[in-house]
Amino acid sequence: MDYTLKIGGEAGQGIQTIGGTLAKVFARSGYHVFTHQDYESRIRGGHNFYQLRLSDHPVMSSRSTVDIVVAMDRASVHLYEGELSGQGILIYDAITLNETIEKNNFLHIPFKDLAVEHGSSKIMANTVAVGSVLGMLGMNLDILFETLKEIFKKKGEEIIGSNINAAQSGHDYAVKNCEQCAYSSAALSDKKMLIAGNDAIGLGAVASGVKFFAAYPMTPSTGIMNYIAGKEEEYGIIVEQAEDEIAAINMVLGASYAGVRSMTGTSGGGFALMVEGLSLAGITETPVVIALAQRPGPATGLPTRTEQGDLQFALYSGHGEFPRVIFAPGTPEQAFYMTNRAFGIAEKYQIPVIILTDQYLADSEWTFDRFDLHKIHYSDQRLKGDALKNLPGYRRYQFTETGITPLAIPGDSEHLVVADSDEHDEEGHIIEDSETRIRMMDKRLFKKLAHIREEIAPPFRYGDEQPEVVLVGWGSTYGLLKESVDMLKSKMKIAMLHFSEIYPFPETEKLDYIQILKKARLTICIENNATGQFSRLVRSETGFEFSAMINKYDGRPFTLDELIGDINAHTAGF
User: Fold this and answer.
1) Helix (H, G, I), strand (E, B) or coil at 169
2) I want to staple 358 with a disulfide (CB 3.0 to 4.6 A). Which of 88, 266, 294, 489 is the partner?
3) From the CB of residue 316, how many other CB atoms can be counted at a distance below 10 Å?
4) What percent of the chain is predicted at pLDDT more than 90?
């Protein structure tokens, strides 16, 4: 089974509530789930949708055709009727729409009337809609009832009971009246974990020992701050909503200098304000982790849409030359582990590490069996207590063979810790001479980079061992590429290379991906931007040029069917 549901309506109608509740129920029922959202940048009004795919096998992208549309407003009827699959059904409330639509694949369900009759309030129309969908799919309501008890436990037994009654009424109505429903939901057991990209980054930060997070809210990164803020009391974390992004990064640098793992999050416009602080981290060699969640620009652009348009920005922002690491996870699972790696590398090499995500990955929810906490590593690189006190002397920027110098906490011993944003000597005092400048640049740039490169993993390879067609992508395109390979492998010799560790660019010793590309008849770079920023990076770093590119830059993610159509157009005649 593999079904796609789409819930459409105006902002404020509870679209996310319906979709999120269904996703949770399906995950707890043992199904594989993938969701993505589309919403406008307004609190009320404007059209939104929540799309959900559930299956008895792993899924990691959205489809173009829809099996059940829940239309909460008139616009949803007109927008999504054409997306219905052959067995697809659109459900709607004729009273709310003030219109009865006499079509075979349309089903009127009186969401509000059932909510008032059985739930005592029209506000429970969303719960009726959830129950209706489960009735159409032939699923029982036990897990939904447990979920409702969890959601409304603070509101008392009466509210819980009303929502249960409302859900039951929607379920019963759909079972009785949806004669054309031919869906079958296989019985599964083991429940799965459901997590979004932003929550995975937040969870990775908490698991890595973050103690200070400062940010100014900016879609689509705000969810990271919200998640970590929800763990403040439990894990002793301080979350500060700064007055702007300049303050946020400077607070984070101050906290890191004072001895705790620190992080900030933002989007492109906020990162622009952080750039001076980024360079400050570079010259003071202060560890910091920055989550940069991309959205379409320039300027405010499309603030609630998605794009991979900030790769070049992340690579080259900052005045002067200093090392940085850029990760671009492709799944929430990768985001979890890479956030842990980001903290480890930032602290080990005393550099900024950027986690590059986007609205698509930030808001998408995936199901996993579990994350393996044994893969989480924590190694405190700071000198503390006796390790610092027993040193005969201390030089913050001591010249070493690796370029990595002792990282001490100010005030933790009799040793003086000095840092300066001007060029400085080993002790941290300002200098002007050229010899020290050259040695200091060599130390913090070239010596460190040589060792950082050794830690960068090669791209993930999947598919045919000797492919004629190779799909290449980075960041949030992972799931689309993987499912595309699975769907096309019976027709052609096809494979994918997915890059999640972007900079320093991976060497070829661990995997000679350049030879894989050179041997292929067709290489396609797939990106959610207009100019092929990653393809340019590949060309500048390796000299390899792709034979074709597929770019999407309308602010929306690829769907699986859409991408396969584009790939087929390039492979016609193979």
Assistant:
1) helix
2) 294
3) 8
4) 87
Environment class of 154 (CB within 10 Å of its CB; exposed 0-12, middle 13-18, buried 19+): exposed
Q: How far is CA 229 from the centre of its chain?
A: 18
What does the H/E/C string look like for 76-125?
A: HHHHHHHHEEEEEEEEECHHHHCCCCCCCCEEECCHHHHHHHHHCCHHHH
Q: What is the mean pLDDT of residues 333-341?
A: 98
CA distance 199 to 70: 26
Do the domain assignments include residue 443? Answer: yes
* Residues pairing with 474 in the sheet: 499
Per DSSP bridges, beta strands 325-327 and 352-358 are parallel
Tokens 């899924």, located at residue: 59
Among positive and negative, which fits the CA dihedral 557, 562, 564, 565?
Answer: negative
Query: Would you call 547 exposed, middle or buried from its count of C-beta atoms within 10 A (0-12, 13-18, 19+)?
Result: middle
323 and 394: one domain? no
C-alpha dihedral over 117, 120, 125, 131, to 10 degrees? -70
Q: Is residue 171 part of a domain?
A: yes
Q: For the chain, how many structural domains are there in total? A: 4
Domain that holds residue 169: 2-177
For residues 333 and 291, give the distance between their C-alpha atoms in angstroms, rounded to a whole number.
16
Element (H, E) at 527: strand 522-527
Decide if 256 contacts 280 (C-beta within 8 A). no
Give the Cβ contact number of residue 146 at 10 Å.
12
User: Residue 183's pLDDT band (boundaries 50, 70, 90)?
Assistant: confident
Q: Is residue 458 packed enough to be buried (19+ CB in 10 Å), middle (13-18) or exposed (0-12)?
A: middle
∠ CA 413-414-416 to the nearest 5 degrees? Answer: 95
Last residue of a domain, one of 146, 177, 208: 177
